[in-house]
Amino acid sequence: MKRTLTINLGGQVFHIDEDAYEELKAYLTRIEVHFSDPGERKEVMDDIERRMAELLQEKDGDKNRVVTLNEVREMKEILGDPDEIGESGEETSSRKETRHYRTPGYKRIYRNPDDRILGGVCGGLGAYFHINPLLFRILFIIFTFAGGTGLLVYIILWIVVPEARTRAQKMEMRGEPVTIENLGKTVREEFNEVRNSFRKT
């Protein structure tokens, strides 16, 4: 008989098999080793745990079910093997391409809080389709004056489309695979931007 444990992952409670827990714990420990900066490490680990929680929720909405070893291994396959990340936190381009094609369905529409005038709908559509958001803003204005439908559609999208709050959601919005190396790279870039802004002032 297997023991079942209760864990908090990314702020959410999950029930997990003991063998699945041991594998998940070892995996998270291996990831931590690759990020030497304490600030970066905490940010990356928080993002990875939130992403893991999202992946487990997508699998099945039932909170009382037990996470199995196979599910943990599938999650590891999506996020990537930390041992394949180089010293700089980057994978080789060939490895990135392999993982890119192995993880379909990562692209989603979100409202973009970093590029918004009102609700971020146009910014989100621009990021999703890799088009300048100004084009969508112009289209909504044209359809609003042409028949009034533009404003209605915008309001509906504002209500229905969720805002990209986490780094993982912002990466999905741009069509980037949410993997360990991409999360690490994003956190590292943000830290560098903050450091550079302090140096300029």
- Rough outline: globular
Number of domains: 2
Residue runs with pLDDT of under 50 for 5 or more positions: 86-105
Query: What is the helix fraction of residues, given as a range?
Result: 55-70%
Question: Taking Cα atoms only, what radius of gyration do you get, to the nearest Å?
Answer: 20 Å
Please give the largest β-sheet. 3 strands, mixed
Number of continuous helical runs = 9
Distance between the termini: 61 Å
Strand order of the largest sheet: 1-2-3
Number of strands: 3
Series of H and E elements: EEHHEHHHHHHH
Q: Mean pLDDT, nearest integer?
A: 79
Strand content is 5-15%
**Which structural class is indicated by helix and strand composition?**
mainly alpha
Summarize the SSE layout with pairings.
Elements: E1 4-9, E2 12-17, H1 18-33, H2 38-59, E3 66-67, H3 69-79, H4 93-102, H5 121-129, H6 133-147, H7 149-160, H8 167-174, H9 180-200
Parallel strand pairs: 2-3
Antiparallel strand pairs: 1-2
Helix pairs in contact: 1-3, 2-9, 5-6, 6-7
Describe this structure in words.
The chain has about 200 residues and is mainly alpha-helical. It has two domains: about 5-105, no CATH class; about 105-175, no CATH class. Helices cover about 60% and strands about 5% of the residues. The protein contains nine helices and three strands; from the N terminus they run E-E-H-H-E-H-H-H-H-H-H-H. It has helices at about 20-35, 40-60, 70-80, 95-100, 120-130, 135-145, 150-160, 165-175, 180-200, and strands at about 5-10, 10-15, 65. It has a three-stranded mixed sheet with strand order 1-2-3. The chain is globular. The model is unreliable at about 85-105 (pLDDT under 50).
